[in-house]
Amino acid sequence: MIPMMIKSIRRRPLAAYITLRSKTTAAQYVESRARDAVFEKFMDKYKNLLKVIAIQDLILSNPTRTPPSVSLDFLNRLSQKLHLNRGAASFLRRYPHIFYIYYETTVSQPFVRLTDAATQICREEAEAITATLPAVVDRLVRLLCMSKSKSLPLRAIFKVWKDLGLPDDFEDSVISHNPHIFSLHDAHEPHTHILKLVDEFPLCHLRPAVDDWRVTATECSKEKCEANDTAEMQYCFKHQYPPGMRLSKNFRAKVKEWQSLPYIGPYEELMKPSKVGMRRLEKRAVAIAHEFLTLTVEKTIEVEKISHFRKWFEIELNMRDLFLDHPGIFYLSTKGKRHTVFLREAYERGRLINPNPVYNVRRKLLDLVVMGRHQFPCNN
């Protein structure tokens, strides 16, 4: 596996990092490895956006009030869970363009609702998701196809529904409306169902997103008459490292060796591994994580969420270790008391290179977060 801290190469033999880890990486190691200033700067804003979205979802999930709202006391009780260190009221007042606090005389306590601007963004996001439902169905099919049984627990999908750009009512608008594709079954555990592709659904050959990059990279190699590079491109992943990260000659050789290693793709059936197949299984895990991230709206996800799929994707490795050991493909941030992984190749200067309609709407909400108290008051 690829090491994360290049400075350690001088003190330890690189081969020590190529083997699989025996235990979870320590928090100190996560904090001390090479950082990418661009991603860290973006996470300073993004971590607060995640808190805003969590509160926004709580407000919108209360249909008993018009407009939807929740009591400030309710949010205060959830402050620790929402990582609101100074309490709900202090956090909400930082974003007057998004939240409006008012006093409800009938119950004699303050409530919180969304501003008109934030409500409009919510409508636009719902409209963007509805307009891209065929793509939503395709993402869900691909997610199921990465499982050997072509099935996943519904509780795991609920963990990532927003990351995948699924509508709020995806059980009805996506699953129930496509009975020729999806079916729900009772699980062998309480409080969940199993979502499965129907047996009659034709499974065409699914092409991983990395293959599109390989085609482009291969064509560039042909134009430059780099025959060796063209031949080696069959199993490669795009690598790009943080600025200032020095790569030794020995390290580059190990990366090149790993790049040429054959592996089983994310949509291919996994056979029983041989004694010499562990490195290929590790590369397959990278391929699955890479494909998973390409299916998300923002090409990023919390490590805890993707870890819920390890068993179903037959990944025996610790996901955080996997991301740390491949810094040229993934970037792991620890900002905001959570571990968030980004697909490096999808980003440039803190923005998606190829944005989608849902992402574009969510950037509007991020702009309001960044705005904070500036240019206020506004009409609510």
UniProtKB/TrEMBL annotation:
Residue span(s) of domain PORR: 35-373
InterPro entries: PORR_domain, PORR_fam
TM region(s), chain numbering: none
Protein name, as recorded: PORR domain-containing protein
Source species of the chain: Linum tenue
Single GO term (MF): RNA binding
